[in-house]
Amino acid sequence: MTHNWLKGLELQLVEVLTIEGAAAILFYFMIYSFLGWLLENSYNYFTKREFFKENFLFGPFKPMYGIAPVLLVYLTPAHSHWLYVLFLCFTLPTLVEYASGALLQKLFQRQWWDYSETPFQLHGHICLPFSICWGFSSLACLKWIHPAIALLYGSVEPFWAWIWSVVGLYFLADLVLATRKHSLQEVAGA
Known about the structure:
Layout: H1 2-16, H2 19-48, H3 63-75, H4 82-108, E1 121-122, E2 126-127, H5 128-189
Antiparallel strand pairs: 1-2
């Protein structure tokens, strides 16, 4: 069983190393980052009555929400054991959230979210209640959301092949400009 899983993982990872694989990853990252932006702003609206929550990037994308699902999709080959899938769904998003929060705080001396008032939290970057939510959300993503997004990708792939590099440059430019903006804010605040 472990051999079959490793073989499936190896095939998925080889696919990632192609131009077509990189294009698919960028598509999934873009979609999930946008859905994460919608989710977070909707949550902010229901809890604080304000739709727009400050974002690291300029565009309507939350990279943390794009990275975790892409990792989950590519690290869970078909026919993975259900315990392995559960383990990844409940740990990977939490690890991505913690690493993102710690990295942003280290680089910019600022927290974009703070769970320090929430029970079972770690350094304000992660907490058990949200980690459980991310785990269930990840399971739903793998079971229902990603198959629909993969179908969408299949239907737009010929068009996407022409524009994906421009979208990649957009994300790179947004990252560079946002990093510059937040670095300047850090300097001005010091």
